[in-house]
Amino acid sequence: MNSLRLRGGRRLKGQVEISGSKNATLPIMAASLMSMGEVVLSGVPDLEDINVMSMALEILGAKVKREADVLVIDARTINNYELPESISRKMRASNLVMGALLGRFKRARVAYPGGCAIGVRPMDLHLKGLRNLGYELTEEYGFMEGKAQQGIMGKEILLDFPSVGATENIIMAATLTPGITTIRNAAREPEIYDLQNFLNGMGARITGAGLDTVQIEGVKKLGGVEYRVIPDRIEAGTFMVAAAISRGDVFLGNVVLEHLQPLIAKLREIGVEVIPKSTGVRVIGNHKYRPTDIKTMPYPGFPTDMQPQMMALFASIPGTSIIVETIFENRYMHVQELRRMGADIKLEGRIAIVKGKTALEGATVEATDLRAGAALILAALFAHEETIISKVEHIDRGYEKIHEKLERLGVDIRRV
To answer: Residue 350: pLDDT above 70?
Structure first.
């Protein structure tokens, strides 16, 4: 099992290039299943989740080739609409092939997905939306099975909650469904907008992504496309917090500042200097931070995927900061590990009360999930002595060569 050994106390300085977005690439890869041409994706990060999705596409019959950050997908050879449990359990985003397969074949059989155990992420919104679209769906023996009813047509669908995955699945299924489908209370994340642009590049007719109402006019087929995925806003946010917690000076290249506004606002509120540049953003830390509060919300609110990292930063700021987690009920698993490093954190249901300190101590800790692992790396940057982080495979799911990027910024870190 791999682990990271990190000695803190160094001020990060230099430049880091942000990789392509994992959460944008995965639904785009799923959507490529509907293409009757060659799909060429660039800016694709080298991550375990991307490798698993590639395997999923190949199991379904697609041809997938990779060279550097370019992925070439040819789905014209697909001859299967069933994704087995052996691959679905390795990744949460495996559920996204459901909408794509229903759109293309009007049939799909997909095992329930796996992924980080950060809370209940049920498929009910996905299934309800697809049923409203006119698909007959059943659940048994750990599988979701769907098929189109006769005379299926686009419908108006109201989501009870702006679920990212449900919005993506419905968009994909509706793209090849006759008529007009309107999704109300749709998720507004930048990754939804990226999926719309990708599908429109293949010949889809989708408008409204990034707003709470998305309209899809069904088309008969989709062709090939060359497309570059957006930068990863969560990786960018993590490195911004790394600069802040180390009181460093870091320039981040390949970022979209619009996607980072909730985080930028909070960092400035704390006292971090965030300077937009034409090619990225510069983040300068100091020793005069002020405590603050955050509440996680669907985009454009503060992202739940940045909550653990901000908790690590709060633990380094004297005074009391408050966190309210509204998205995932289990997203405080990193608290116990941060406490091992001396952090003073009290939990009251979904509320975390963080009393910051002037120092944390290195310890042996465990990455319980992807973003928890990122939080532990950040806390280790601030801590005295050495921190050993185990279960790095969780971190590998969402951060491309993070130890190498940190090393180039001056961090004493090695992977063992």
So the answer is: yes
